[in-house]
């Protein structure tokens, strides 16, 4: 009975020892598998997955296990290499983020690796500042080009407007030249008691006043202005018109007044013209003729 009991106990003890050894074997095998998973993530470049796996392992293993420090160094190196690649491609923002993520694994790293991290971070900072300065300079240059283009378009518009004013002035002057004058009446056919009524060229003799535009003054067309004033002078003398000179600038008044006065004196030396100046900077220059007989 005792022999059977002893054999039973011995067998039970051996079974327990075998079970413990098997449990320890499977525990060690699971740790190796977990570390292999970290290595696989590193090989694929999936650094965040490797980091998460290593953190999970660290919570279920002895803190003194040298493999923990080894994999921290491998992660630190992997982040450093990724950050350098991003820096070389010009992606300084991503490089700075990557290097910052890798810094937490430097606890178990060598001083040389820490120095490499510091150097890479400084390079990323310098390149980022240079990129920002370059972008600011490009934006400033683009704004300057836009302002120059606006100024050019404005000059073109002003030149076009001046050309249009000059064209209108030339058309009016040409129309004034080609307007048919009253046919002369033979002296023999004129009865002494009948005097032919004067014929208006530019004004309405029955109106209180008539406006005569002078666009050629804006356009700098001196010849066109002189031709127009030849016709104006005839109406002034024929209908005893007072003349209001509406000009943009004060210097324009004596110039126009002198030209018109000379033509009036040539037609009627004894005629005393009545001129009055009016400054209207925002209005096209013009003459306003008022027949005195309608006053």
Overview in brief:
By secondary structure, the chain is α+β, with helices and mostly antiparallel strands. It is built from eight helices and four strands. The longest helix is centred in the middle third of the chain and has 68 residues, at 111-178.
Q: What ranges have pLDDT less than 50 throughout 5 or more consecutive residues?
A: 20-26
Shape verdict: rod-shaped
Largest sheet: 4 strands, mixed
First-to-last CA distance: 159 Å
Q: Indicate the structural class.
A: alpha+beta
Number of helices: 8
Strands of the largest sheet, in order across it? Answer: 1-4-2-3
Mean pLDDT: 81
**SSE series:** HHHHHEHHEHEE
Radius of gyration: 52 Å
Tally the beta strands: 4
Report strand %.
5-15%
- Amount of helix: 55-70%
Count of the separate structural domains: 2
What is the strand and helix layout of this fold?
Blueprint: H1 2-44, H2 47-58, H3 66-88, H4 92-103, H5 111-178, E1 210-213, H6 215-219, H7 222-239, E2 241-247, H8 252-267, E3 274-279, E4 286-291
Parallel strand pairs: 2-3
Antiparallel strand pairs: 1-4, 2-4
Helix pairs in contact: 1-2, 1-3, 2-3, 3-4, 3-5, 4-5, 5-7, 7-8
